[in-house]
Amino acid sequence: MMIFSLRIEGYDGKRISFWRATGRYFATILSVLTAGIGYLMIAFTPRKQALHDYIANTLVVLDQE
Length: 65
Hints:
Layout (H helix, E strand, L loop, with lengths): L5 E5 L7 H16 L3 H4 L10 H6 L1 E5 L3
């Protein structure tokens, strides 16, 4: 059971691979190292993506299932 019902997927709507998930994880470090600007991007981007989502070409979506 997921608490927030969120899912990470690629731009094509499919599940991301292990390697893309790993890259996204390490790209999260950039979001932190930029003094949080990577997370602040969420408020100003059309698809509400953080820096690590742009780098990994991923989206965080609400799971409707």
